[in-house]
Specification:
Blueprint: H1 13-21, H2 35-39, H3 46-58
Organism: Planobispora rosea
Protein name: DNA-binding protein
């Protein structure tokens, strides 16, 4: 499914699939999304959101406010 270019952090398969189906394969793409938008994806949950927030923060990135 992926192109080998994904830099998403290690997380559960349902969350990873939810992001990929929505077109997110790289952390920098997530900066255009809000937490609410990501949590609305089928397969995303609080644990995966925490992993994403931490990975974004490590790179000096963040989700869009809203």
């Amino acid at each position: 499914m992926g192109t080998g270019e994904s830099d998403l952090p290690k997380m559960g398969n349902p969350a990873r699939r939810a992001l990929e189906v929505a077109g997110y394969t790289r952390l920098d793409q997530l900066t255009g999304a809000t937490e609410a938008e990501l949590l609305a994806l089928h397969g995303m949950g609080p644990k995966a959101m925490g992993i994403l927030r931490e990975a974004l923060q490590e790179r000096g990135l963040s989700l869009r406010d809203g």
